[in-house]
Design a protein that fits this description.
The protein has seven helices and 37 strands. The chain is mainly beta. Helix 3 packs antiparallel against helix 4 and helix 4 crosses helix 6.
């Protein structure tokens, strides 16, 4: 009789437990007393938790969240708990346990000893000061109900009591809906053992999302939450199956809290937070910005802060989008070139060893569009001066005391009329040594200056040209000797006829030409105009 009675009692307790678990009703285990009150929110934690490292990390995240959006504060607090391990002892809640079922999160929610994925989410929301009625409802179970009996984070109609539920599958789960990109601070809701919109098996907090959408329309994102009785990060694809080759979907969708109803914390709000072992906390930096223009760099500077290993700077455009993140800065300055527009920036001093950081106040600044550069003037130079002037080691054409940007091609030096220079926009091309065109003629310049002493056969653009007194002999036709050597060339309009091989007449005589050059070493017979002729050292033998 006693055995049957005990069996009935056991079955009754099992039924109660199953009803409570699957209906979302809280079944409280013995709760460890909470005597330590958090600053800002007033939420209480146990002395055991407050004695450990994760309490310090929580306070640090809360303090560093000043000026951050509520969404970012929620994520920062969740990430501060990464590595927390549950305990097999209900009174040991510091986070350094043996991966047992008891945690600070479930103890606070009154469900010590039970699955705690939802308790962790609710605990982070409360620690972040998010209103349960306006921003993020609380729940002790992933598929639990709120006080109104509605799904806390999603329901079959596709909306929670507050916030927004985003489905990622069509009603019959056959088609993936790729129109929603998960956002940090969203809750990721896991499917039960079969495809159903009723109930949720697990929940985690989205902390980051890849910028680029996958080719199949899905998004790769990273979460934090309960994983084997430890707070861990995990990375998923939003269209993943529950298991390999399974037709059951892994995720129902994402729940976005009502962030519009959540305010940022100010520096004043967190000023009373005292971090245990505060000597490891980096000092708060003061960021100074010297805005440049769209073609000059904007400079950032700050004074060195205590307990700091390096600095990280973030720059945001006028829409609030982060356009630059630069970490590992060991000095106290940074500069970069930005497009014209309005920006904000903030600096973090980082103690990487202690995993602590402190943000500066947000600084706003404007980068102006660069004004057209004025034509350089020359201090101390007569404003009426015209001629050549050496500017930063480069000769320039000056008119009325300024660079003459209209000066193109060969230009006379007004101060020395016999000198001419080859230039563009008033800048002398000292790198040019060749013939250049001017007023239907060609002239030889050396290092950008007309060389009237030049007399030679010169190379230009694959050809050879006869130059005398610095001018191309366009009027000359016939044989001409290179003044700079002993070779003779057959030219037409001053250009050596390098494509020609044959006999050519000059000064009453005939000569044998090979590739435009007199073949003075050639002795032999050549054919010309249907007849054969004997050539002796390049000259026709009569």
């Amino acid at each position: 009789m006693k055995a049957r009675a005990l069996k009935r009692i056991a079955l009754t307790l099992l039924a109660v437990w199953m009803i409570c678990c699957f209906s979302g009703t809280d079944l409280a285990a013995t709760k460890v007393s909470e005597t330590v009150k958090l600053p800002v929110t007033g939420m209480k934690v146990t002395e055991s938790y407050a004695s450990g490292a994760y309490y310090t990390k929580l306070l640090t995240a809360m303090k560093n969240s000043a000026g951050q959006k509520a969404r970012d504060r929620f994520v920062m607090i969740a990430k501060s708990q990464e590595g927390y391990k549950g305990s097999s002892k209900s009174t040991k809640l510091a986070g350094d346990g043996d991966k047992g079922i008891y945690t600070e999160y479930s103890n606070h929610r009154g469900v010590a000893g039970y699955d705690w994925c939802a308790a962790f989410v609710s605990w982070c929301g409360e620690a972040a000061g998010l209103s349960s009625s306006k921003v993020l409802p609380r729940s002790n179970y992933a598929g639990g109900k709120n006080s109104s009996g509605k799904a806390a984070w999603a329901d079959p109609a596709g909306a929670g009591t507050v916030g927004t539920f985003h489905r990622v599958w069509s009603n019959d789960f056959s088609k993936y809906l790729s129109d929603y990109k998960p956002q940090p601070g969203d809750l990721c809701l896991f499917m039960k053992s079969s495809n159903t919109w009723s109930g949720t098996s697990h929940v985690e907090i989205v902390i980051s999302v890849n910028d680029t959408q996958n080719s199949d329309g899905s998004w790769t994102f990273t979460t934090i939450g309960r994983n084997g009785n430890e707070v861990k990060q995990s990375t998923y694809k939003s269209n993943a199956p529950r298991s390999k080759n399974s037709s059951v979907r892994k995720f129902k969708g994402f729940y976005t809290p009502n962030w519009s109803a959540a305010a940022a914390w100010t520096a004043s709000d967190v000023s009373g937070i005292v971090i245990p072992g505060a000597s490891k906390t980096p000092g708060k930096p003061t960021l100074t910005v010297s805005a440049g223009t769209s073609n000059t760099e904007t400079a950032f500077s700050w004074a060195k802060t205590s307990n700091t290993e390096y600095y990280t700077i973030r720059i945001y455009d006028s829409t609030g989008a982060e356009i630059l993140l630069r970490g590992g800065i060991e000095g106290t300055t940074f500069s970069t070139q930005l497009n014209a527009g309005k920006y904000t920036a903030k600096l973090a001093s980082v103690n990487n060893t202690a995993q602590e950081w402190t943000f500066s106040d947000v600084v706003s600044f404007t980068v102006a569009a660069a004004a057209p550069e004025p034509t350089p003037g020359f201090p101390g130079l007569d404003p009426a001066y015209a001629g050549i002037y050496l500017y930063n080691g480069t000769p320039v054409i000056v008119k009325n005391g300024r660079i003459d940007e209209d000066a193109e091609g060969l230009t006379r030096d007004a101060a020395h009329p016999d000198d001419w220079y080859y230039c563009s926009a008033g800048i002398v091309h000292t790198e040019v040594t060749q013939i250049v065109p001017y007023d239907t003629e060609w002239f030889y310049v050396k290092n950008g200056k007309l060389d009237t002493t030049m007399a030679a056969i010169v190379d230009y653009n694959g050809g050879k040209f006869a130059v005398a007194a610095g001018r191309l002999l366009r009027e000359y036709n016939g044989l001409i000797q290179d003044p700079a050597g002993s070779d003779w060339y057959f030219v037409a309009s001053g250009q050596a006829q390098t494509q020609y091989t044959g006999l050519a007449q000059y000064d009453g005589a005939w000569f044998y030409i090979v590739n435009g050059k007199l073949a003075v070493d050639f002795v032999g017979d050549v054919q010309y105009d249907g007849a054969w002729f004997h050539v002796d050292h390049g000259m026709l033998a009569l």
